[in-house]
Design a protein that fits this description.
- This protein is of the alpha/beta class and 286 residues long.
- Helix content is 37%, strand content 10%.
- It has a five-stranded parallel beta sheet, sandwiched between helices.
- This is DNA (cytosine-5-)-methyltransferase.
- It is found in: Nucleus.
- One of its GO terms (biological process) is methylation.
DNA sequence: TGTAGCATGAAAACTCAT
DNA sequence: ATGAGTTTTCATGCTACA
């Protein structure tokens, strides 16, 4: 019985791996390398957490500018995070369960005389669509914790390249941190998400917002022109689609080569285009 | 045409034992 | 270490109904 189970799981793994791998062989041929998730899932450090915090020294060429911030589901199919890490300069992922940064179960009473209509910036969506958009966005408390280091580094504000903006969780995090956004180039394909984000921006921000529909249409040439127009980006931020990675997908969990999740490679492409365009600018200035 | 409501499994981590 | 049972998971497709 044991042998049969082993055999079956092996077969399944091969079938799954073949599909996930697609016709795109991994660069070093090993897509099954281990990337264990930490337990507890607290990332490199947490505020007030009694545990040795990780010290990390990145190679000079990987420290930026620009800073970048990439996100996806922790529990992706095997090998996916290893691949993502390999493309993003072998930087180790910081896995965090947001339950360590926000309390979802807190019963409180509130007495106030504020208006109670039009409270949150996701108004105007149906409940199904709203739930989906909220479920897909950054967890603002967690992202704000990670981005909080930027506050003292950029007292005059930041230029942001925002990929897969969604309803703007990253921008909301920056805003809550009191970090001014001088300019945001936002790439988002969802009409409802764009409407929500634009509405929030117009009501809370004074900086420049440029909207682009599709990462595929953000060509290297356009990136060069944006970089020269804004003098470079301080932050490239985004979480690429999880559709083909997420555990609850029963139909197309095809891994990083899946139809939507393969857009990760555009994040990689665009980040490198920004880096090289910015390197050229500083070289010209010298 | 669009959406609320509901049904649909499996990979992989996790727990707990040996 | 290994294994069996349990738990968790940024989803998708169909149907009824407005």
């Amino acid at each position: 019985k044991k042998a049969r189970l082993m055999e079956e799981s092996k077969k399944k793994r091969n079938r799954y791996g073949g599909r996930a791998q697609g016709n795109q062989p991994s660069l070093d041929g090993s897509h099954d390398e281990p990337m264990p998730l930490p337990n507890p899932m607290v990332g490199f450090n947490l505020p007030g957490y009694l545990q040795p915090s990780v010290t990390r020294i990145l190679p000079k060429q990987d420290t930026g500018p620009p800073f970048f911030y990439y996100e996806n589901v922790a529990q992706a199919p095997k090998g996916v995070w290893a691949t993502i890490s390999r493309f993003l300069y072998d930087i180790q992922p910081e896995f965090v369960d947001s339950k360590h940064l926000c309390a979802t179960a807190r019963k409180r009473g509130y007495i106030h005389n504020l208006p109670i209509e039009n409270r949150d910036h996701t108004r105007g969506l149906g409940i199904t669509e709203r739930y989906k958009s909220l479920g897909n966005t950054f967890q603002v408390d967690t992202v704000a914790y990670h981005l909080s280091v930027l506050k003292v580094m950029f007292p005059n504000g930041v230029n942001v390249l925002s990929l897969f903006t969604g309803i703007g969780g990253g921008e909301v995090a920056l805003h809550r941190l009191g970090i001014h956004m001088k300019a945001v180039v936002s790439v988002e394909i969802g009409k409802a998400n764009k409407r929500i984000f634009r509405g929030w921006w117009d009501q809370t921000q004074t900086g420049t917002l440029i909207e682009i529909d599709d990462v595929k249409s953000l060509t290297d040439d356009r990136i060069v022109s944006f970089v020269s127009r804004f003098g470079g980006f301080d932050l490239v931020i985004g979480g690429s689609p999880c559709n083909n990675l997420a555990g609850c997908n029963r139909y197309n969990r095809d891994g990083l080569e899946g139809e939507q999740s393969a857009l990760f490679y555009h994040y990689f492409r665009i980040l490198n285009a920004v880096k090289s365009a910015m390197a050229r600018i500083t070289f010209q200035a010298m």
